[in-house]
Amino acid sequence: RSASGKDPLANLNDEQRAAASHVEGPLLIRAGAGTGKTTVMVRRIANLVSQQFAEPEEILALTFTKKAAREMKERLEQQLGRETGKRVVTSNFHSFCADLLRRHGSAIRIPEDFSILDDSDLLTMLARVAQSHAICSPQDTTTLRAILTRISAYKEEGLSLDMVPSTDHAGLSAQLRADPPVSQDVLLRAWRELDALKRAASSLDFGDLIVQATRLLRRNPRVRAEVANYRFIMVDEYQDTSPVQDSLVRLLARGHDNVAIVGDTDQSIYEWRSARPEIMQNFPATWTNCRVITLGKNYRSTQQVLDLGNRIVEPLRRQDGLEKSLTGVSLGHAPVFRCFSSKIEEARWIAQRIAASVEAGQKPGGIAVLARTAAGLLDVKQALARAGLKTVQATDRAILEDPATKRALAGLRLSENRRDFAAFLRLASDLGASAAEIGRIEQAVVAGRDTIPEAATRLFRAARPMSAEAARWEALHLRLDAIVSTRDMGSVPEAIREIERIFRGDTEADLPAALRRVCEAAEPFARAIDFLEALALDADFRASFTEDRIVLSTIHAAKGLEFEAVYMPGLNEGVLPSARALATPHGRMEERRLAHVAITRAKSELVLTAEKGAESSYLAELGFVESAKKTVVKRAGRRLRRAF
Ligand code: ATP
Ligand code: MG
């Protein structure tokens, strides 16, 4: 029994108990939504600890998102008691790698103050490289994005620049081949130059984090010895793993093979980002003596919800030949379908319905609105706000999009890593830097001698004294010096406020609302670098899913979660399934799994809505629109498919 007095194996069914009491050797838990995969992971950790097979810090539980890692930690604290639960190491892939690299990256010449680049940083960096190396027009974002997607796909594949064939070859995955064609020669040149600029700027992107951590583990015995302290490795949601992540897991488990993975191929929704569900399917074949456990009973949803969940992935069943229709806990309400003449009406109706159920005593935190994209949540969000209902949104980037916030965060980044060229580019127009000046700074960064503020200072000194040029460089270097010295402010919020003052000049004016939120969010962080990392890898401004608010989320971000009631607005053909997904057979299958993930988040209540005349073909399959309509919708679908 654990310190909290809870029996780790209490109330589990036979298969769950077998999985939770498994001790040594590889284990694969393969089962559908809501069958208790994550529960079993938590119970197994509790069992290992309470039976003294392992100390809590000898167990590493990896998830795909920070949110999932946080939830895992909470469940462990409940199970094991606060103190013991805290000691188990839970992390997501990217944070785990970032931490390893910060502490040991110097062994492979990665400076500890490296910045983490997001997609928009990469795009601006690549645009500069494209121009200076005549790769394509810096305005040609379609080509630039195609290049970035392909570089990232190679990295997820575990291939580095020197391993990739230098001539055109049968591409990686179907999706990538369909992208606007970029010749292999252009691709490799762009990759090489972008890498050089990133290295000079001490910057890594998400893909680099995993690739470099893997490289570090391969090369450095000291780091291998450190991670060997994790004697039990567990990974949730393995269906969304990419080849490079899989290699990382293999490196972590080397020597003991105590690796337990759980997943459900019906919920594989990241193939567009190089996840490979086959990796999970092949797991037993690639690990000696791997035990495979299947869980059959769903504990989350009513039979009506599951029927819909099953039906939407039926075409996949025929493909993989597996029979795994889920059976639910009990009978419940029939799922509801409504159709509206406008998005606004749809949103208003949803808000009214939610308001009524909250009025009737339903907990707001048990209600979720799930959409294909964040944009698809906007109308409902507004309607709920108008109805006076509070919401919380996963991956709400609105605050981060605010100009003052962007500027402050870029300033913070530059103060932590003075070579962060992408951060400088974000600040360039606020700093009043001209195109020529940006070019000179870029040269200095690439030359690798000076940091960015040092380069500005040197260029100021080199300019003809008293000239207009000297005056410009002086202004620039003074501002840059002021920004980087905010590092010594003592607290992260104070540094953010100071950066805002540097740009606005006035000290008295109130901070913009968005920036105030950012300061609040920064409060718990002692070091700016940790705050920036938390933002880069987990942009939702809250550990507050625990708060009792209606949850707004994309379907992707709702993976693994459950809610009493789930609303799925925007079930229109071209939205879910998305027009893009309809364009390829692969995309069509993945889209079904996405719908399956959304439906299976619901415990008892499921509400589907669409716009009249634009109804999703899925609705006909689920039996909500009559079959005469079905053909019309199908035809519309085909038209869309042809258009893409
Ligand atoms: P997903 O595929 O969506 O990630 P999952 O397989 O990880 O789902 P869990 O989230 O672990 O499933 O469990 C789903 C729900 O079922 C949870 O509310 C959990 O508490 C409950 N549950 C799991 N096992 C049992 C059990 N043996 N008895 C009662 N409830 C259970
Ligand atoms: Mg789960």
- Percent of sequence in beta strands: 5-15%
Class of secondary structure makeup:
alpha/beta
Strand order of the largest sheet: 3-2-6-7-1-8
Distance between the termini: 58 Å
User: Quick one: biggest sheet?
Assistant: 6 strands, parallel
Brief characterization of the structure:
With 644 residues, the protein is an alpha/beta fold. The chain has 31 helices and 14 strands. The structure holds adenosine-5'-triphosphate and magnesium ion.
Q: What labels would you give this structure?
A:
isomerase, 6-stranded parallel beta sheet, DNA-binding, DNA_helicase_UvrD-like_C, binds adenosine-5'-triphosphate, globular, disordered C terminus, binds magnesium ion, 644 residues
Written account of the structure:
The protein has about 650 residues and is of the alpha/beta class. It contains 31 helices and 14 strands. The strands form three sheets. A six-stranded parallel beta sheet has the order 3-2-6-7-1-8, sandwiched between helices. Strands 9-14-13-10-12-11 form a six-stranded parallel beta sheet, covered by helices on one side. It has a two-stranded parallel ribbon with strand order 4-5. α23 runs antiparallel to α24 (about 470-485). The longest helix has 17 residues, at about 185-200. The protein is globular and about 85 Å long. The relative contact order is 0.12. The model is unreliable at about 630-635 and about 640-644 (pLDDT under 50). It binds adenosine-5'-triphosphate and magnesium ion. Keywords: ATP-binding, DNA-binding, Helicase, Hydrolase, Isomerase, Nucleotide-binding. This is DNA 3'-5' helicase. It catalyses: ATP + H2O = ADP + phosphate + H(+); Couples ATP hydrolysis with the unwinding of duplex DNA by translocating in the 3'-5' direction. It is an enzyme of class 5 (isomerase). GO terms for molecular function: 3'-5' DNA helicase activity; ATP binding; ATP hydrolysis activity; DNA binding.
